[in-house]
Amino acid sequence: MYSEHAIILDAAYITLSLDHSWEEDSLKYENNLALMLDFFTFYGDKFHHQKEEEIIFRSLLKTDEPDIAMIINEMLEHHDDFRSTVSEIRELLYRKEYARAQEKITFYVNTIRDHIINEDEILFSLMDSIFSKEELDVMYDNCNVIDEKLGLKYKRELENYVTNLKIKSDEALQRAAYQLH
Question: Can you give the CATH number for the domain in which 167 is found?
């Protein structure tokens, strides 16, 4: 799940780089943002959140850990908010309200970043202290089953798409830095 968080964060930061690109080419901006929204819908929600909701959260709720229900409910609210925000951004994009769409995607990126930090530092750490290695292995295997049902090849394509965009973005930053010297 940590590696999926890293991919989601890479996608989020790449999406921020689209800011004001509609001023040069609105169609390219629309297409790029639509692709990133598809990534968040399919990879972030269908692959990642589904595993959290169906496997991790359910397993945690079966424990006697104090305050776990409150933490899980907050995470579920975040997931619902993410879905709503992506829908709102799609609508803004459809109406060609690019500045407002970018404001919303910036809000989404900041919110998902904070959400991931909380999961990594609180929820996943808690799991490591509650569950045995064998129990964690079973959860991991169950997560893999979900990936296989949804399409492991498609998941890898989405990951590769973001990784390739990140490489191009990093190379562009390096070229810009080199030109400054």
Answer: 1.20.120.520
